[in-house]
Amino acid sequence: MKSREQEYREIFMAEALEYYNAMSRHISELERDPADSEALRELFRLMHNLKSNARAMGYNPIGEVAHHMETIFGLIRDKEKTFTGSVVPVLFSGIDTIGEMIRAVGENEELPAVNRLMDNLDRLVKGEEPNLEDEEQDDDEDVSRKLELSDLVYIQVRKLDHLMNLVGELIIDRDRILTLSKEIGNPALATAAAHLARIADELQYSVMDARLVGVGSLFSKFPRVVRDVATTEQKDVELTMTGEDIQIDRNILQIITDALLHLVRNAIGHGLETPAERVAAGKPAQGHLTLSAQAERDDVLVQVKDDGRGINVASVRRKAVERGLVSAQGAAGLNDDAVRAFLFEPGFSMAKEVTEISGRGVGLDVVKLAIDSLGGQLRVASVLGEGTTFTLVLPTSIAVKGALLFELENRNYAIPLMHTDSVVSLLPESFNVVGGLLMTRIQDENVPVVSLRRLLHNGDGPLSPAQKTDLTGRQDIIIVNYNNRRLGLIVDRFLRQQDIVVKPMSKPLDTIDLFGGVTLLGSGQVCLVLDVPALTRLFLAKRP
Questions:
Q1: Rounded distance, CA 20 to CA 36, Å?
Q2: Euclidean distance between CA atoms 49 and 56, whole angstroms
Q3: Is the pTM of this model over 0.90?
Q4: Which fold has domain 4-141?
Q5: What is the mean pLDDT of residues 55-66?
Q6: What's its catalytic activity (predicted)?
């Protein structure tokens, strides 16, 4: 596997060679027509970009040459110099030298000496005549020069999306062929099917790898955002960014852009105090905001952390009762995580009191929906007076998802592993009925349990109160987690865990929000994929 440094160098080489080829073309155009302002503007822009990229990568000699060339093209653009006489050969020589330096980087060779070129560029900037006595000799030694093409190509995202869709179809057929080969029992077919499976797997991961980009491509846009928002809010904010090299699917990064922007703005506008407020609270006047990313198993965790005023859980608890989201008795028994989860309820965050007291919440339901659409999770942790951390748990890819298959009423269903905590089999004596709800103890927590059959087929009315007499024999239960709420779903039978390719549901079934899509199993059977957030909301709406 390539190192991050090697990947970045290849990207630099691809762009640098593209810049060099464009420079060579535009300077020839400028020689034919010294009044060609478009060619001059492009030369100035290309030199500026090459300078920035080279310095960022640590190739300072290339950056210095590009900087001096940029200065001279700027003087020509501002009509302080003209592209005539001795200026012409020096600038041509400069572009040739840039090409040699870029090739040297690509081949891990020592960069060529540029002392004489830099001296001539300095002379031009000062209005002095350059030393051209060795130019003719250099031209003779450089007589059609090595021509190179970049090892990298640029591909439009839509083409990668199409390729990923084709791979998804291949994965479905792979599973069907593997199933058929086992049923038929032909050794030759089994061998061919196994080979197809290996090729399909390798192709799948290769395409997924091609779609990965560094989180830093998004993070790099936030220093300016933080500066602008902090200035508007009259706050002093220091931004720290870590984990910029963590890789994630480009489409996922695009989807979370607005959510991350909102969380950062909210952290500055509402989470962090003014310098005066911080000093009065015994804190440094400057607030601290951290934007970080890290890999955790098959997920990527993106965090927005501030050291501001934090969330007032008591105020959120009181407002949840006032809004009718929970009874006073129920609210008293909720832990802090469960209370903070109310901030993600639609409209809840618009309440003025919660915004003023907790400094949090405006639009968090919209952020949550964006994360839900990816099959991810949004978590919040906070200490009053010390700060708040929002964690976005994201899959590295949205094309192929891990899922748990189970059976219900002789039909197969799939549930994303992202929202699956665990699976358990319990006897009836492990359950209690509290307030009309079936409850069981899972990992030192009381978890409500409901029959998935009843939940799906109950109609528009509330669920009838649960009875322990409804349970006969061992119960297979999938424990799901959404918005810091755990829920047990009773199913008929566990099947297996496998990767699936989720396809959107066609009209008019796409209006049923309990299902996030469909997948095709190896047997050829269509399998509905449950939407855990929608199921959780349905249970909360129907509970007795």
A1: 19
A2: 11
A3: no
A4: Four Helix Bundle (Hemerythrin (Met), subunit A) (1.20.120)
A5: 91
A6: ATP + protein L-histidine = ADP + protein N-phospho-L-histidine
